[in-house]
UniProtKB/TrEMBL annotation:
It comes from the Bacteria. The lineage of its organism: Bacteria, Pseudomonadati, Pseudomonadota, Alphaproteobacteria, Rhodospirillales. One of its GO terms (molecular function) is transferase activity. This is L-carnitine dehydratase/bile acid-inducible protein F. Keywords: Transferase. Pfam families: CoA_transf_3. The keyword Phosphoprotein does not apply.
Length: 414
């Protein structure tokens, strides 16, 4: 994307990679799908050199996940951003040896094999830190590197269930649903993984020694469940599915407007409800003998929600939003991606980034987060073709000759 196009889209100019916070850091990403690779992507957005290490002839299975594009998938083009791709068979002793050479020149390794797999290949933490004592290693797995379930396979859907989130998702008494039908646990674990890497690099600055980060998918989910644990262990409260509302505030949920579209509303204080009552043209609802306090509203929550629902249903979503915004009532549209594509705030914040791939054409992806004022991250490229950087990495970085590379390729090592 040219700078002219970036400015037209409301985006900050791309800084030079050398100016970014993670410049000078080399990351090896030998993981698959989302969690650990997402951590590597975040580091890459802020200047790290990320080398994706993939199985020859196959690559990361995420290349085949989601909507097909002219090459790979749209999911891969988005999530493989800013990475270089090399192919390497870690199961082959020659491949393992090349990997050790890469480790010697790396700062960070991101992996998500089932615990014990890298150790089986002679590439576990104890071996790798001998090669590079400064190495920071992110290890993401379903259940972590220890514990009785360590050997079980893990995926985001399983992490949502095991970590306690799925139990809360859905309507009371009905089949639990997948929160958002997304790989939420993968992305959350990737975020925590990136934080772990940054903390370990900071510690390395002080001591010169690396360390590994042990991240279980379910743990990132469990960490985000507010008072679930303290309320259970303190007073025995077993939180159940609450549908579109909550037992802590009222009205606080989702409502259908007259045009069939939906909004979310959050009245988390008595002052917020008083404002809503004014907006509804029913100020008497906030009287002392009605619903002034949260306790009063929760005790008659079905009645309160019914009154709000009837008011919402009398207007279109745009009319509801206009009234709530004017009255300073916390209310937001429940957006589809089609709504997001047309929303002026998403545009003004530059949340959607347009890049062009030679084969796939223009691809719209989520922009970089977080936003730094002086050294914002950037997306320089979409997900690479499989093995696109073999010559550059193995030739320029490791010094393997063209003849050596050809021999390794013929043996399916690379």
């Amino acid at each position: 994307m040219s700078e002219t196009t970036r400015h037209a889209a409301g985006l900050a100019p791309n800084p030079a990679p050398a100016d970014l916070p993670m410049s000078g850091i080399r990351v090896l990403d030998c993981a698959t799908f989302i969690a650990a690779p997402f951590a590597a992507s975040i580091l890459g957005e802020f200047g790290a050199e990320v080398i994706k290490v993939e199985q020859p002839g196959e690559g990361d299975p995420f290349r085949k996940f989601g909507t097909p594009a002219a090459r790979d998938t749209l999911a891969w083009l988005s999530e493989g951003r800013n990475k270089k791709s090399v192919t390497l068979n870690l199961r082959d002793p020659k491949g393992a040896e090349i990997f050790r050479q890469l480790i010697a020149k790396a700062d960070v390794l991101c992996e998500n094999f089932r615990p014990g797999t890298l150790e089986k290949w002679g590439l576990g933490w104890e071996e790798l830190k001998k090669i590079n004592p400064r190495l920071v290693m992110l290890r993401v797995s379903g259940y972590g590197q220890d514990g009785p379930y360590r050997d079980r396979p893990g995926f985001a859907r399983i992490a949502h269930a095991f970590g306690g989130l799925t139990y809360l998702a859905g309507l009371p008494g009905e089949l639990p649903v997948t929160p958002g039908s997304t790989s939420l646990a993968d992305y959350m674990s990737g975020l925590y993984g990136a934080i772990g890497v940054l903390l370990a690099l900071r510690q390395r600055d002080k001591t010169g020694a690396g360390q590994y980060i042990d991240m279980a998918l379910y743990e990132s989910v469990f960490r985000a469940l507010d008072e679930l644990a303290p309320a259970f262990f303190k007073i025995g409260k077993l939180r159940e599915p609450e549908g579109t509302g909550t037992t802590n505030a009222c009205p606080h949920g989702h409502f259908r407007c007259g045009d069939g579209r939906f909004v979310a509303i959050a009245c988390t204080s008595d002052k917020m409800f008083e404002r809503l009552a004014q907006v509804m043209g029913r100020p008497e609802l906030a009287a002392e003998d009605m619903f002034r306090t949260t306790r009063q509203r929760l005790a008659r929550h079905k009645e309160v929600d019914g009154l709000v629902a009837a008011w919402m249903h009398s207007m279109s979503r745009d009319e509801v939003m206009a009234a709530c915004v004017k009255g300073e009532v916390p209310c937001g549209p429940i957006n589809s991606i089609a709504d997001i594509a047309e929303d002026p705030h998403f545009a003004a914040r530059g949340n959607l980034l347009r890049l062009v791939d030679e084969l796939a054409g223009e691809v719209v992806i989520p922009n970089v987060l977080p936003r730094l004022s002086d050294t914002p991250g950037r997306v320089a490229s979409l997900g690479p073709a499989l093995g696109a950087d073999n010559d550059a990495i193995y030739g320029d970085l490791l010094g393997l000759s063209a003849e050596e590379r050809a021999t390794l390729k013929g043996a399916k090592v690379i």
